[in-house]
């Protein structure tokens, strides 16, 4: 695929409520937001695509590439609506998936529930076999124990089988043989092998990743094939790519096989967009802040690349608490997710403390001011009451908000129990939700050994611009950027993602006893695998490769990522690897342990196509809504009072027009609230750039 | 200087921020500590104190054993160092088990916190250091001085200058000198971070002292805790529990008095101090008692002086829960972790339906060593590792117990593939232990079965400090007992709950962790739940018949 500015690119992001479509044709950009079709999501996409094609006067055959991200897999896991799935594992380890970490996610709650099992115990089967840590068979596979499972799997009408044996990352032979036997006996269920889905040490996470993959695989395979069919029928001839959680895109066949890699593709698109803007503006230290209706997501972007990780916890069930979901090991853009959004509910707890979220009124019934039956006070209600949201211009004016309903809800839920005025309560709600996000951001920065005061914030999502400036103040950050088209940020991000694929493989060695032959063979093999997938998607593009080792001091709990040179390793490389390790370790933890040996658990190769950075997408879509400059009463925190405050209409702002806080900058899908400490202007790309007045 | 009066909203935002500051302190410590138990399991605590030494915020991350050992400790430092002599860059340290956190391995640091040149409070943190010499970390010392280096309260950092002599003594007294030095530095950066953040936060709000917010936090929390206590029926409730002990069984007897706005728990009648290191200083025993009370009565109230004030814990001097210097205390958690169950026993009489049946309580951790000369192996790989596992928790009113889950501790279990990558051990089995959960209307959580052997065919040593082997968790309201724990060889020989024991070459170690006890009469259990337990293989059809009179 030639990714140059002449290619017409189409992107679609299916979210829980809306499907966002973006079409980029030369330097013009067309967007559409249509309701998600829950039953036939591909129909929703096609409806939106029709809109952007019409507006751009293009035909299906003009589209050069289609990039797609979806929450479908995530939702199936959260709602436990996957297929009936069985597990085949090593005898003696039937419960590894359920025993998990043996810990409780809430220290003081005596009544906690374990997350509901994807694969109940009666569908967890075992076979006689055992590999050791080096991949040598201590007990060879007893094939009779495999054939004995054919009948129960058929009788139970299982739709997917996850196969996860101990140490299979070191030697997949037994898992491969199990698949062969199942297929030989006509097993119709889809089969996921842990040695393919996640060839990494740590049986619980590997099995969980494999189980999640198997659980959604038949659904995703059907959906993706239907989507392709529907596109072909409409006359599209372009290749279809799927956005992954790691911030790259992959080919359809690969997505069909490993749908677990598609979770969180929407948020990762947002981070890719932030990284793109960071590069355009030369911002090398960025905090990306995406706030929607239910949650806010924060990630770090350094040197124009989002921070990545290999762990992600899907479907946290109990108030977003860490440990209440299912941990999977896939390449992801690292994000912290906070139960803080426009719909987050405010209440006063038993101790008399104001608490915001994580419970959310969501889109339905939504905030009290929506007038759709919601009666509890939310963050959106607080923003309405303080004059930050124009009740007549919400969601492009399509929805009139009921200010009186906000007032009643806040009065009942907050003002009465605390004995405060409604304005103070509303202020308290926004302050507290911003505190919660600031606290989470501070902890995240501690974990990565960075100082946020020299970072720039890039904020988007429906709620991001409303809270960004105050959040930046709390974090001591001096610059805030609100990009153009921030409300379709994820789909915009898809347009800038490379074709990319990461393969991780566990193979144990130590620095002092480095097994060069085995390491080189392992790394070369996964490199070839990653290249072959990227090549299928980006034949003529230049490819970039990054190799990483996951290393730690012997006996420590968690590994850190250490970059490796792009060549076969030899004795001469060891000193260099050691000093890079020391540097990375020192950055994270302050100091090193010189005398301690270092062990390497896993190896990773990321291959990606080089993205053409030269495109210019400066024009925002023309909106039909026009609003003149005006003033209205807005509650100003520094004064603790309502003040006559200017409101500006972003689409009619001239570039370089100076904007001084306190001010509201409104646009069709969101509003930016600028406190008195910040001022700024639109740049040529229509990004709103705000700086602290003293900086 | 007097500050303006803060509004309720401002006070609440400030409270929220202070809790976030101590949480950041805890995370800093977790990220920078060397000891895996601190990094993986959060065996630490971090707190913020006002100028009177009252704790106003404590990090949620941490272990129950530190819940209120920390709350009282800063006062000891204030007794030794007068406020007027404090310098903004001083840091004080102790590991005195009776003043810090119950055993020598827990170092506690306190740093004065200055804002605009004035002393406004203190930050403090505690974490577990891997080795301080002596006999090493185990129950076999006869007094506390056998257990390692004892450090009374002293000035570790004097006006910004680190006491290098102390660091050299510390390193010379540890088997892992680099790690303990690193952990000490981690503690230093933890208290420094807390002091800096507190001052920044005060500046952003525009206050010069913490007295308003301290009073607000402490008064609000105290009043709320008292209000919750007053919902319980007043009276005196007694409960006792017999547990394994070191050589002889121990009695843990508690009398709980629920009175107007307060709960008093006294341990009169409990066994005297043990000869070996499983004794609890009173501060440590109190921590676990308060933890149990908080879980049952006031789980949502943040930890601080006010929340703990209505809870009063006493015990006769030199009993197992109030051992005096120089009693050995290294493994005090083995007894401490059982205390929430004693508290629950009392609370259940006051208010049935509030607390679970008895559970495993203590961690089933298995420190294993091999290849040492004592094992006479010669060529075997030298290794020392610790498998951490758990039994079942007690059934809860309205819910079954949790299988193979840590309570009250928050430690994480070991993964088989990781254990096998760092030692010559092979784990042959790790799965639920069928029929181990006590029968009841609600069933106790299941224990688990582990089978371990050495791939090198060499002997290995187990350093046991386990309980619930001779005395299983007991049921409530007609619920049956959970199964006792068993630790034995594949040849059938059973091990003692405590002390070093050898697994000969060629034998497997078989570990059956205890099951939690049941709650309510088994006859009242929903037949669908019994059927599902049978289908899932959690109970056998035979036991379903024997315990529940159930047949398909």
Structural write-up:
The complex is a heterodimer of chains A (695) and B (552). Chain A is an alpha+beta fold. Chain A is 31% helix and 28% strand. Chain A contains 17 helices and 33 strands. In chain A, the strands form eight sheets. In chain A, strands 13, 14, 15, 18, 21, 22, 29, 32 and 33 form a nine-stranded mixed β-sheet that branches. Mean pLDDT of chain A is 90; it is low at 1-5. In chain B, strand 8 (235-243) and strand 9 (250-259) form a beta hairpin. Chain B has 552 residues and is α+β, with helices and mostly antiparallel strands. In chain B, helix 1 (8-32) runs antiparallel to helix 5 and helix 4 packs across helix 5. The interface between A and B is large, with 73 and 75 residues.
Key terms for this structure?
heterodimer, A: 695 residues, alpha+beta, globular, B: 552 residues, 7-stranded antiparallel sheet, 4-stranded mixed sheet, 29% helix, 22% strand
Measured on Cα atoms, how large is the radius of gyration of chain A? 26 Å
Helix content of chain A: 25-40%
Q: Helix count of chain A, per DSSP?
A: 17
Largest interface: A-B, 73 and 75 residues
Cα Rg of chain B = 24 Å
Number of helices of chain B: 13
User: Helices and strands of chain B: which structural class?
Assistant: alpha+beta
Overall pLDDT metric of chain B: 93
> What strand line-up does the widest sheet of chain B have?
2-1-5-4-3-6-7
The parts of chain A where pLDDT drops under 50 for at least 5 residues are 1-5
Main β-sheet of chain B, in a few words? Answer: 7 strands, antiparallel
Beta-strand segment tally of chain A: 33
Broad structural category of chain A: alpha+beta
Terminal CA distance of chain B reads: 78 Å
Mean pLDDT of chain A: 90
In short, what is this structure?
The complex is a heterodimer of chains A (695) and B (552). Chain A is an alpha+beta fold.
């Amino acid at each position: 695929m030639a990714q140059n500015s002449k290619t017409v690119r189409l992107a679609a992001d299916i979210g829980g409520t809306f499907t966002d479509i973006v079409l980029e044709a030369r330097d013009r950009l067309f967007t559409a937001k249509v309701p998600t079709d829950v039953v036939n999501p591909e129909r929703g996409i096609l409806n939106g695509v029709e809109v952007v094609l019409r507006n751009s006067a293009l035909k299906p055959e003009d589209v050069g590439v289609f990039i797609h991200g979806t929450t479908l897999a995530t939702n199936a896991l959260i709602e436990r609506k996957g297929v009936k799935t069985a597990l085949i594992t090593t005898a003696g380890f039937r419960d590894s998936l359920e025993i998990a970490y043996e810990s409780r996610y809430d220290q003081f709650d005596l009544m906690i529930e374990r997350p509901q099992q994807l694969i109940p115990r009666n569908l967890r089967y075992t076979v006689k076999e055992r590999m050791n840590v080096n991949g040598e068979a201590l007990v060879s596979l007893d094939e009779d124990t495999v054939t004995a499972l054919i009948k129960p799997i058929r009788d139970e009408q299982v739709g997917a089988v996850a196969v996860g044996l101990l140490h299979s990352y070191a030697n997949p032979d037994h898992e491969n043989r199990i698949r062969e036997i199942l297929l030989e006996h006509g097993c119709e269920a889809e089969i996921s092998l842990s040695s393919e889905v996640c060839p990494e040490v740590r049986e619980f996470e590997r099995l969980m990743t494999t189980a999640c993959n198997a659980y959604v695989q038949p659904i995703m395979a059907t959906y993706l094939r239907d989507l392709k069919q529907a596109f072909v029928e409409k006359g599209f001839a372009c290749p279809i790519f799927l956005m992954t959680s790691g911030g790259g895109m992959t080919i359809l066949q690969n997505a069909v096989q490993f749908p677990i890699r598609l979770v969180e593709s929407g948020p990762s698109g947002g981070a890719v967009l932030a990284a793109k803007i960071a590069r355009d503006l030369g911002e090398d230290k960025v905090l990306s802040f995406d706030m929607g209706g239910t949650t806010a997501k924060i990630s770090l972007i350094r040197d124009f690349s989002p921070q990545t990780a290999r762990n992600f916890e899907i479907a946290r069930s109990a108030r977003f608490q860490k440990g209440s979901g299912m941990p999977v090991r896939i390449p992801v853009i690292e994000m912290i997710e906070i139960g803080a959004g426009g719909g987050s509910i405010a209440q006063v707890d038993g101790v008399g403390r104001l608490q915001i979220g994580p419970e959310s009124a969501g889109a339905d019934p939504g905030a009290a001011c929506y007038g759709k039956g919601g009666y509890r006070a939310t963050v959106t209600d607080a923003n309405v009451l303080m004059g930050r949201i124009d009740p007549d211009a919400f969601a492009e004016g399509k929805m009139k908000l009921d200010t009186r309903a906000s007032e009643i809800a806040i009065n009942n839920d907050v003002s009465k129990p605390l004995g405060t005025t409604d304005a103070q309560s509303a202020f308290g709600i926004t302050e507290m939700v911003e505190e919660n996000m600031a606290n989470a951001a501070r902890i995240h920065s501690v974990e990565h050994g960075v100082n946020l005061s020299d970072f720039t914030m890039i904020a988007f999502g429906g709620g991001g611009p409303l809270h960004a400036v105050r959040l930046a103040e709390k974090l001591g950050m001096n610059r805030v950027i609100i990009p153009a088209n921030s409300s379709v940020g994820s789909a915009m991000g898809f347009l800038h993602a490379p074709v990319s694929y990461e393969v991780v493989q566990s193979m144990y060695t130590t620095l002092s006893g480095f097994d060069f032959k085995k390491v080189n063979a392992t790394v070369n093999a996964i490199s070839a695998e990653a290249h072959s997938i990227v090549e299928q998607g980006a034949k003529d593009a230049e490819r970039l490769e990054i190799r990483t080792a996951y290393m730690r001091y012997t006996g420590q709990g968690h590994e850190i990522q250490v970059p490796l040179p792009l060549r076969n390793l030899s004795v001469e490389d060891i000193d260099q690897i050691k000093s890079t390790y020391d540097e990375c370790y020192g950055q994270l933890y302050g100091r090193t342990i010189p005398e301690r040996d270092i062990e390497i658990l896993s190896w990773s190769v990321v291959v990606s196509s080089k993205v053409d950075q030269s495109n210019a997408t400066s024009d925002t879509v023309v909106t039909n809504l026009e609003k003149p400059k005006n003033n209205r009463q807005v509650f100003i925190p520094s004064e603790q009072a309502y003040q006559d405050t200017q409101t500006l209409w972003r689409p009619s702002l001239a570039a370089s027009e100076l904007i001084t806080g306190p001010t509201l900058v409104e646009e069709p899908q969101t509003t930016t609230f600028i406190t008195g400490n910040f001022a700024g202007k639109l740049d040529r790309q229509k990004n709103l750039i705000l700086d602290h007045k003293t900086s | 200087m007097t500050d303006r009066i803060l509004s309720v909203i401002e006070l609440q935002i400030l409270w929220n921020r202070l809790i976030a500051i101590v949480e950041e302190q805890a995370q800093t410590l977790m990220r920078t500590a060397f000891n895996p138990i601190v990094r993986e399991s959060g065996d630490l605590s971090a707190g913020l104190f006002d100028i009177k030494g009252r704790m106003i915020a404590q990090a949620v991350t941490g272990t129950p054993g530190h819940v209120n050992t920390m709350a009282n400790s800063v006062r000891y430092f204030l007794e030794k160092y007068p406020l007027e002599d404090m310098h903004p860059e001083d840091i004080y340290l102790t590991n005195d088990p009776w003043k810090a956190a119950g055993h020598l391995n827990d170092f506690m640091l306190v740093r004065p916190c200055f804002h605009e040149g004035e002393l406004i409070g203190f930050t403090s943190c505690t974490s577990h250091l891997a080795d301080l010499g002596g006999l090493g970390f185990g129950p076999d010392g006869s007094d506390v001085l056998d257990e390692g280096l004892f450090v009374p309260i002293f000035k570790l950092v004097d006006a910004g200058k680190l006491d290098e002599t102390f660091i050299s003594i510390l390193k010379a007294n540890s088997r892992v000198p680099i790690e303990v030095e690193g952990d000490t530095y981690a503690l230093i950066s933890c208290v420094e971070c807390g002091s800096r953040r507190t001052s920044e936060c005060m500046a952003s709000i525009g206050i010069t002292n913490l007295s308003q917010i301290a009073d607000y936090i402490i008064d609000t929390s105290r009043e709320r805790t008292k209000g919750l206590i007053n919902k319980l029926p007043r009276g005196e409730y007694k409960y006792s529990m017999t547990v394994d002990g070191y050589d002889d069984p121990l009695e843990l007897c508690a009398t709980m008095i629920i009175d107007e706005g307060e709960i008093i728990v006294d341990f009169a009648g409990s066994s005297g101090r043990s000869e070996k290191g499983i004794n609890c200083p009173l501060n440590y025993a109190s921590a676990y008692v308060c933890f149990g009370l908080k879980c049952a009565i006031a789980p949502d109230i943040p930890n601080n002086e006010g929340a703990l004030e209505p809870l009063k814990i006493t015990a006769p001097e030199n009993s197992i829960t109030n051992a005096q210097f120089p009693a050995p205390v290294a493994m005090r958690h083995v007894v401490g972790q059982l205390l929430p169950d004693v508290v629950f026993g009392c609370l259940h009489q006051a208010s049935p339906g509030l607390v679970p049946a008895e559970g495993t309580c203590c961690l089933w951790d298995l420190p294993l060593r091999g290849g040492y000369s004592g094992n006479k192996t010669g060529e075997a790989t030298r290794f020392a590792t610790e498998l951490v596992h758990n039994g079942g928790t007690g059934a809860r009113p309205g819910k079954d117990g949790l299988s193979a889950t840590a309570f009250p501790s928050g430690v994480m279990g070991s993964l088989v593939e990781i254990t096998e990558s760092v030692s010559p051990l092979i784990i042959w089995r790790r799965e639920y232990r069928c029929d181990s959960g006590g029968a009841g209307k609600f069933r106790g959580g299941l224990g688990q079965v582990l089978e371990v052997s050495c791939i090198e065919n060499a002997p290995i040593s187990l350093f046991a400090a386990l309980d619930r082997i001779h005395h299983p968790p007991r049921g409530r309201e007609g619920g049956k007992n959970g199964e006792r724990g068993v630790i034995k060889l594949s040849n059938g020989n059973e091990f003692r709950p405590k002390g070093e024991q050898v697994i000969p070459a060629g034998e497997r170690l078989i570990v059956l962790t205890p099951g939690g006890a049941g709650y309510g009469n088994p006859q009242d259990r929903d037949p669908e739940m019994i059927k599902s337990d049978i289908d899932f293989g959690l109970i056998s059809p035979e036991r379903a018949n024997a315990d529940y009179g159930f047949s398909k």
